[in-house]
Amino acid sequence: MENSIQVKAIVKILRKRILLILSIIVIAMALAAYVSYYVITPVYQAETQILINQKNTDQQQMYTGAYSIETDLQLINTYNVIIKSPAILSKVIEELKLELSPEQLAEKITVNNESQSQVVSIKILDEKPARAVEIANTIIDVFKEDIQKLMNVDNINVLSVAKLADDPQPVKPKKILNIAISGFLGLLLGTGIAFSVEFFDSTIKTEQEIEELLNLPILGFVSSIKEGRGSISTRRGRRVT
């Protein structure tokens, strides 16, 4: 019974402050939309994929295929580091004439591979879609050429190169998601403010609140008198117990 009364009280507060809650939700979503569409710079992504596998040599023919694949998987972690190393990125920066340091360029690069997979994905994030494509493809070209000198191996095959779409879409910011999250946060904030206002507001505004507070019926009300020019008119006033 007490739980039912508490739920009714909560629902009553929410209905009473619904305009406040909705206003905060709308403001939060409007701010998120403005920031997402007009403040945050869009970021585009380009992706390439390479396959890492050892070419058969007289020495490698002594080992089984499973051992060769395991060796390739161990090399992938090393290659992931080399791809983002200054040795590779400095040449990329020089070739594309980028106004970036190797460290700044490395922050734009993500290198990963699926579990137990010899396929490595290289993703580039940049404010310009065409530049993201150029960086991704140049990294592959430089890495494929230099890895032969650095590790004396030739086991890189390009599976896919980055291409510029006719209508590139940014991957950041996620505008709709940002607006939805802001709306949810606005709901939480509005609800919290509504309960806070209700908790600290001790004024009595309606006759019904008097009945609920004192648990007594209203017996009548006193009319207020308003003086006009040459006449006296009455209007309904507040009820009293």
From TrEMBL:
Major site of localization recorded for this protein: membrane
Protein name: Wzz/FepE/Etk N-terminal domain-containing protein
Keyword Transmembrane helix in annotation: yes
Protein's cellular compartments: Cell membrane
Membrane topology: Multi-pass membrane protein
Alphabetized UniProt keyword annotations: Cell membrane, Membrane, Transmembrane, Transmembrane helix
InterPro entries: Bact_polysacc_biosynth/exp, GNVR, LPS_length_determ_N
Superkingdom assignment: Bacteria
Segments forming domain Tyrosine-protein kinase G-rich: 144-195
UniProt record similarity statement: Belongs to the CpsC/CapA family.
UniProt entry tagged with the keyword Amino-acid biosynthesis: no
Polysaccharide chain length determinant N-terminal domain: residues covered: 3-96
Species whose genome carries this gene: Lysinibacillus zambalensis
TM ranges: 18-40, 176-197
Pfam hit, one: Wzz
